[in-house]
Specification:
The structure holds two protein chains of two kinds.
Chain A (H helix, E strand, L loop, with lengths): L39 E7 L13 E4 L5 E7 L5 E9 L17 E8 L2 E9 L3 E3 L2 E11 L8 E9 L5 E11 L1
Parallel strand pairs in A: 3-10
Antiparallel strand pairs in A: 1-2, 1-4, 3-4, 4-8, 5-6, 5-9, 7-8, 9-10
Chain B lengths: L43 E2 L3 E7 L12 E4 L14 H4 L28 E3 L5 E8 L6 E6 L1 E3 L5 E8 L5 E9 L10 E6 L10 E8 L5 E3 L11 E6 L1
Parallel strand pairs in B: 1-5, 3-5
Antiparallel strand pairs in B: 2-3, 2-13, 4-12, 5-11, 6-10, 6-13, 7-12, 8-9, 8-11
The chains are: A mainly beta, B mainly beta.
């Protein structure tokens, strides 16, 4: 349905003034590196071993990868670019991986940075599963509006806080790849 | 995509009437050289009555705490800007001067409002939007959230007050599991929530959490437009 805009609006005296066009704001600085690496950031893969895409019903796993490894750029909703991660650690209150509303779930924040500036931010509260003796969470979708990332070196930084207040931190350099 | 972008014949963005500056604010204070200088409005929500708070688009600047701002405009005398006036902002079909579900917004918005959908993919993913409080708020809340969603999408919206000590008081919560993949089908709720005990120094937070994992967005689409996400709160 096409809506006609209001061509003349009642503007109170208090609203008179110059009209500035909104502009994209500068990005925030990337967070500093972790003092100690206690959280491993890696790729998210499905049970079939392919990159996670966000499709409902995916069974997602953590896959370790070396520094500088490639992370696929997944086309997300409305054409946005998504980088999908997984993390692994030990010794935390894991919460309930079947219930995203569980109060016991750790809180996790993952920042993707480029050249010292924040590119994308993921925040989630999800339960951790056991995988090979580690506690893992897979399917951390960091969504960015930047379209020129193919082959670009990026940095992921993640901080986790569990219900008991324990913190884990990790950094991982990788290359985004379409 | 959410459907063909509507043709805006002419869109009018109201000038920032002393838009909030300082921590959490997006727009600089405007000071003109003449005697009718418009100074920055307080950085926090205050003043009795109903206020309309706009979700800042994803291309905007987050607050220092990583939350995106809820934008609220006030005039030079501290009174609400016209965006809080339902006679101005919505197509007031019943003529009572007060928005109600079914009455559609006009393509207006704060000057500092920018484009950008806040996508949430994967269960547990959440986004928060916030404004500092300088006054108490009641439990009466209205949500108007155009959104992108997919089959199976379930997203929980919570409005809460977060104290400086980190403790949270939940005012109201609701779950969007309605089909409707576009800004033409906004999620609209009027809620009678819990009256919190809030005041200066507290934070009013809208938290949207993906429950099912299917992609969802809190939409702010090419403002000023009818596809802006906003909420109504009341200061007693």
């Amino acid at each position: 349905m096409i809506r006609e805009a209001v061509i003349a609006a009642t503007v109170t005296a208090a609203c008179a003034g110059p009209d500035a066009a909104p502009v994209d704001a500068p990005p925030r600085d990337a967070p500093p590196p972790c003092d100690a690496q206690s959280l491993t950031i890696g790729r998210c893969v499905t049970d079939a071993g392919v990159a996670c895409t966000g499709a409902l019903g995916e069974v997602r796993r953590f896959e370790a990868a070396a520094a500088g490894a490639e992370v696929p750029l997944v086309v997300g909703p409305q054409g946005s670019a998504m980088l999908v991660f997984a993390v692994a650690t030990t010794g935390i209150v894991p919460g309930d991986p079947t219930d995203p509303t569980a109060a016991t779930n750790p809180q996790l924040e993952l920042v993707v940075a480029r050249g010292g500036a924040e590119l994308a931010l993921y925040r989630g509260r999800m339960g951790f599963s056991d995988q090979g003796g580690q506690q893992v969470a897979a399917g951390l979708f960091a969504i960015t509006e930047d379209t020129g990332l193919d082959g670009v070196a990026l940095l992921a930084h993640a901080v986790l806080t569990d219900q008991a207040g324990a913190q884990r931190c990790g950094d991982w350099s990788f290359v985004a790849r379409r | 995509m959410h459907g063909a972008a509507p043709v805006i014949v002419a869109a009018l963005a109201l000038g920032a009437c002393g838009a909030p500056a300082g921590p959490g604010g997006d727009a600089d204070a405007r000071v003109t050289a003449d005697a009718d200088a418009i100074t920055a409005a307080p950085v926090c929500l205050a003043g009795p009555g109903r206020h309309r708070l706009f979700v800042q688009g994803h291309q905007g600047t987050p607050r220092a705490d990583g939350r995106y701002p809820l934008l609220h405009e006030a005039g030079s005398d501290g009174a609400d800007a016209a965006l809080c006036d339902d006679d101005v902002f919505v197509d007031d079909t019943n003529g009572d001067g007060r928005w109600q579900p079914g009455e559609e917004p006009r393509p207006l918005g704060p000057a500092a409002l920018v484009h950008g959908e806040h996508f949430l993919v994967g269960p547990g993913a959440y986004a928060e939007f916030a404004i500092d409080l300088c006054a108490d708020v009641t439990g009466d809340v209205a949500l108007y959230i155009p959104n992108y969603d997919e089959t199976g999408s379930r997203t929980r919206h919570e409005l809460l007050v977060r104290g400086q000590d980190g403790r949270e008081q939940l005012i109201a919560t609701t779950i969007d599991e309605e089909a409707g993949q576009s800004g033409y089908n906004p999620f609209v709720r009027v809620l009678a929530g819990v009256d919190p005990s809030a005041g200066p120094g507290d934070l009013l937070v809208l938290r949207s959490t993906n429950l099912s994992g299917a992609a969802f967005s809190v939409m702010v689409w090419r403002p000023p437009s009818e596809y802006e996400s906003w909420l109504l709160v009341e200061v007693p």
